[in-house]
Amino acid sequence: MDGVLFQKLDLVNRNLLDSMSEGGTDRTVFSFGTAGFRYCNDLIDYLAFRSVIFMSWLSNRIGDGFLGVMVTASHNQLIDNGLKIIYPDGLLMDRSDETVIETFVNMFDLKESMEYLMGVKSTTFTFGQFNLCVGYDNRPSSIRISDMIQSTADSLGASVFNIGLTTTPFCYFVVERLNRNSQLNGKIGELNDLYSEMIFGRYLDLTNGVRNLNNGYEGKDEKLIIDCSHGTGSIILNEWVSRSDCRGEFEIVNGNDPDLLNVDCGAEYTHKYRRTNLSLGDRDIGVSLDGDSDRLVYFKMSDGQLEIADGDKISALFVLAISKLIRLIGIDVAQKAVVMTNYSNSNLGVLARELGFKVETVEVGVKYLIEKSLSYDISVSFESNGHGIYRVSDSLRSELTNKQPEMTTEQKLYCDILLFQSNVT
Q1: What is the largest CA-CA distance in the chain?
Q2: If the chain, 425 residues long, is cut into consecutive pieces of 10 residues, what is the mean pLDDT of each piece?
Q3: What share of the chain is helix, strand, coil (3-state, %, to 5)?
Q4: CA 35, 39, 42, 48: dihedral to nearest 10 degrees?
Q5: Measured distance CA(308)–CA(301) in Å, rounded
Q6: Phi, then psi, of 289 in degrees rounded to 5
Q7: Partners of residue 390 on adjacent β-strands
């Protein structure tokens, strides 16, 4: 590394360590959790600085393309913040790289820590070829931390696409799409349109198809009330709903308000305390997101009591629906699984086995569920708290898409429903 550049980085490193000490924060042993780092926000500047250097090393090891980082602390209180690091395929880091970044950030001497990095798999730093996508949630500290990421990346000669205020799923989506098509770099409008069409546009197409099969039934008395936990989910959802003709079907509540982020609302509050601050009619369905919209639980009122569909019940609904869709389409999918944790409801495993699904049990952490799900053509993988993913493999998607011209109108619709997937990670 260039000596002048190292001196500049070393000065920043020492200043960040000094600021932690001056703020009364003892240096701690940092741990990379199930999705990334998450601590009081005054510690995240140092971790952001170090993480960018780590990602520069990572880009040299895994090749060209975009990496990503989302600045968020999900359902945590406002004073906290965190970092989620995203691989080029739009997924989380593997375990071996988590060990490397943990070791790197806990070696506070920059020279020593960079020598460690260069010794891992004999990697040599080459700055200036590093592509990074950055997003952040609506916490007051998130812009400051994003600025630290930007300035560090600039020092390293990296190219940064800052997508700004957003949700975690959208940030993952953008990283994956940029690695498919680098021409989308910087084109936030086109990426927004692609994301909207992939999820909301397809949703409208499929619900219209179902209505046609059901002789135009509209479900006029039913409404989905979405609790956005005063996070960034409301920004995307309000835009989608405003551009459609289904305003009466949705109500977006607890919108973008950082001062109230995750306060007595959201997925964590609903799931943990079995409460909601939403007013539901008898036929209404509620859904609570968390602050960065990568987690959800459903609920409704039943005989005056709140009935919650957590991750286990969501998985069960997927299993029932998938089994019926496979039968209606007239196909056989041997490689299908439910991935759960030791904290999942055991009845989910019983139901899944009865319907021909393999049941896999992994340790707690959505990254472990996703890792296991990649071995199957169809997989349903949710933690009880609502973090999870429904996934269809590329090979099965291609096979069914090629068969669709031979299908009846009804079979094509059922196939489209089966292939409709929305990742919540």
Answers
A1: 73
A2: 87 93 70 90 97 92 88 95 94 89 96 90 67 96 98 94 95 94 92 90 84 67 89 92 73 93 95 91 91 94 91 97 96 96 96 98 91 95 94 93 94 93 51
A3: 50, 20, 30
A4: -20
A5: 9
A6: -95, 170
A7: 380
